[in-house]
Structure formats: structure tokens, C-alpha cells
Design brief:
Layout lengths: L3 H17 L3 H8 L3 H8 L7 H10 L13 H26 L1
Helix pairs in contact: 1-5, 2-3
Length: 99
């Protein structure tokens, strides 16, 4: 069962990955694990080892402490904008495919 620290680390991991535009697959390859394992870390289903936390921090170009800090408003806004842009692109592709 996950605790609040596991959840916080998972959320920060997902936020940074999305901010940089990495897929779970790409991040997993950079760290030597599967995309399913990255998903489990982000969902706080599995706990991260210190070594894996270091690999993730290196791949995401942050200090390890980043995962334990509260998310800034700027990071939240940037992540939301990227998600909205990706949704718009997907909708445009679907409309084009339907035409």
C-alpha cells in the first residue's frame, strides 16, 4: 500500500516526464525498465529504490530533491497546456481521418 510520500514522488515523476514531453516508454528505456514499471512508479503502486530514483532524476535532468518538493504553479500550468495541445492535435487528426 502506498503512502503520501510515494504518491507525491509519483505525481512529481509524471509531471516532470510530461513537462519534458517524454513518453513512459522513452523514460523507461532511458532508465532500463519497461513503460509498465514507469506507470507503476507514477501511480505509487511500486516503491522506487534509491538507485532508480537517481536514474530517473538523471534522465529528467533534476536533482533528487525535486521529487519531494511541492509542484509549482508554473509547472502545473505548463503541463496542462501541453495536455490541451496534445488533445487538440488528436482531435484534428480524428477529424481529418473522418473526412
Amino acid at each position: 500500500m502506498s503512502n503520501s510520500v510515494d504518491v507525491l514522488v509519483g505525481r512529481r515523476l509524471r509531471a516532470r516526464r510530461r513537462l519534458l514531453g517524454y513518453s513512459q516508454q522513452a523514460l523507461g528505456e532511458a532508465c532500463g525498465v519497461t513503460f509498465q514499471q514507469i506507470h507503476k512508479y507514477e501511480a505509487a503502486v511500486c516503491r522506487l529504490s534509491v538507485v532508480m530514483l537517481w536514474k530517473l532524476a538523471t534522465a529528467l535532468e533534476v536533482e533528487i530533491g525535486y521529487f519531494f518538493a511541492a509542484q509549482s504553479d508554473d509547472e502545473v500550468a505548463i503541463a496542462r497546456r501541453r495536455e490541451m495541445a496534445a488533445s487538440r492535435e488528436e482531435m484534428s487528426r480524428q477529424v481529418s481521418d473522418a473526412a
